[in-house]
Amino acid sequence: MKRSAAGEQTLVAVVLNGVRRSARAEPRMLLSDFIRQRLGATGTHVGCEHGVCGACTVRLDGVPVRACLTLALQADGRRIDTIEGLAGPGGMGALQLAFRRHHALQCGFCTPGILMSMSELIERGPRPTEDEVREVLAGHLCRCTGYTPIVRAVLAAAAAMRGDEESADA
Ligand code: FES
Ligand code: FES
Predict the structure, then answer these.
(1) Residue nearest to atom 2 of ligand 2 (CA)
(2) 3-state secondary structure of 57
(3) DSSP of 36-65, one letter per residue?
(4) What is the pLDDT of residues 36-74, one digit of tens each?
(5) pTM score, two decimals?
(6) CB-CB contact of 140 with 113 (8 Å)
(7) Per-residue model confidence (pLDDT) at position 170
(8) Measured torsion, CA atoms of residues 32, 107, 135, 85, in degrees rounded to the nearest 10
(9) Where are the domains of the chain?
(10) Under 8 Å between Cβ of 149 and 102
(11) How far away, in angstroms, is 78 Cα from ligand 2 center?
């Protein structure tokens, strides 16, 4: 990627949810705007735009990041995973199903960001504790659901992914 003058657009190439994509971005363009406006993946939500609410969380090379605190140019040559990539070919993934089953969302504005953070937590360790889930959740604001059903859903999803269906339905 070549340096560009202010206002000049640079081609940014990424792998978005497993698919190679590229689009132009100004040097100051936020990753959240790039994903939504240039790549058309509007499942990533933008709330506070200053790193507080967690709504814009995506995974950059597997690591959850605030897309509103990241420049599009910083993602050049890297892998971005967003909520659109969580579902499998058969429909919703285990996390999404658990959120539905445990009523872990109402308006759903915060949900994509929470799901991206929790997907990484479960990948890091398939048996997260309630404290670990709450620690990750502390980086996300939800204005309408309350956090207890979200914690319950994440623990159930982790259990389901381990094949522990009894716990998943608890
Ligand atoms: Fe990025 Fe709130 S929109 S943290
Ligand atoms: Fe509405 Fe979380 S479900 S903000």
Answers:
(1) 142
(2) strand
(3) IIIS--TTS--SSSSSSS-TTEEEETTEEE
(4) 999 999 999 999 999 999 999 999 999 999 999 999 999
(5) 0.93
(6) yes
(7) 42
(8) -50
(9) 10-83, 94-163
(10) yes
(11) 29
Q: Where are the beta strands (DSSP E) in 5-115?
A: 10-16, 19-25, 57-60, 63-66, 79-81
Do 169 and 156 contact (CB within 8 A), yes or no?
Answer: yes
94-163 CATH, one of 1.10.287.130, 3.40.50.1370, 3.40.50.1780, 1.10.150.120: 1.10.150.120
Which residues, judged by CB distance below 6 Å to any ligand atom, belong to the binding site of ligand 1? 46-49, 51-56, 66, 68
Residue 71, classed as helix, strand or coil, is: strand
What does the chain come to in residues? 170
- Give the number of the ligand closest to the Cα of residue 44: 1
Q: What are phi and psi of 80, to 5 degrees?
A: -120, 130
Q: Under CATH, which number does the domain 10-83 receive?
A: 3.10.20.30
Fold agreement between 10-83 and 94-163: no
For residue 156 the two structure tokens come to: 């159930």
Tokens of 3: 């340096």
Residue with tokens 């890297």: 78
Res 100: pLDDT: 96
